[in-house]
Amino acid sequence: MPSVTWVHSFLAQAQEVGALRALVATQVEFWGVSAVSDTAQLCVSELVANVITHVGEATPATLTLTLSASRLRIAVRDPDARALPTLVQAHGDDEGGRGMALVSALAARWGVDLPGDGKVTWCELAVATSVLGNAPSSAGRRARVARVLTAYNYELVLVGAQQSRLGMATTEVTVVQVISDLLHWLRAHGHDVDDILDRAQTRFEAERGAAGLPW
């Protein structure tokens, strides 16, 4: 069964952890593995906290989630290959030192990779073998799109190759307007629209690949 991947770049800061947890919760729900949502969020919190503590506040980092047939892999990449996470025994009154021990207890396995330009600390959670079949179907996506376009006073008729050239052109103009409005809204709320477009393209390609669709 093919895997699907979601990637998000961020700055490792304490105030970002809540947002990262929310993103992870949304993504695992989208993939149909909400049963591991709480555990995944805890692991992300600890992996990011490890970067903040041992590499530095506001370190550029990347969070990658990869779902396969039986595993959800959570990976946090940072640029410092020297500050390697270790599993230590924390005592009862210690304020820190429990991060990787918690990850080790929650995950099926964890480790550190050194790709040459930093390090990747990762862990894997066991998931049900059929979860990739729970992602939204193409019919579900079409229904969501139809509801969005209805808000633009556009009557969407999905007739594939039989759609007229005029109908196709009208559809494209309306969809471009929807995307443009979404980008304006995102920028107004402080989001990086280029990053979001890249992530949308990555998701689109991953989902087509997972479904075995031609390009």
Condensed summary:
By secondary structure, the protein is α+β, with helices and mostly antiparallel strands.
Walk me through this protein's architecture.
The chain has 215 residues and is an alpha+beta fold. Helices cover 45% and strands 18% of the residues. The protein has helices at residues 17-31, 37-54, 99-106, 138-150, 165-188, 193-211; strands at 4-12, 59-67, 71-78, 109-113, 119-126. It has a five-stranded antiparallel sheet. A hairpin with a 5-residue loop joins strand 4 and strand 5. The protein is elongated. The two termini are 19 Å apart. InterPro entries: Anti-sigma-factor_SerPK (IPR050267), HATPase_C_sf (IPR036890), HATPase_dom (IPR003594). This is ATP-binding protein.
Number of strands: 5
Approximate shape = elongated
Main sheet characteristics: 5 strands, antiparallel
Number of helices: 6
Protein name: ATP-binding protein
Keywords: ATP-binding, Kinase, Nucleotide-binding, Serine/threonine-protein kinase, Transferase
Domain Histidine kinase/HSP90-like ATPase: 14-114
GO molecular function, one term: ATP binding
Lay out the secondary structure:
Elements lengths: L3 E9 L4 H15 L5 H18 L4 E9 L3 E8 L20 H8 L2 E5 L5 E8 L11 H13 L14 H24 L4 H19 L4
Antiparallel strand pairs: 1-2, 2-3, 3-5, 4-5
Defining key terms:
single chain; 215 residues; alpha+beta; 45% helix
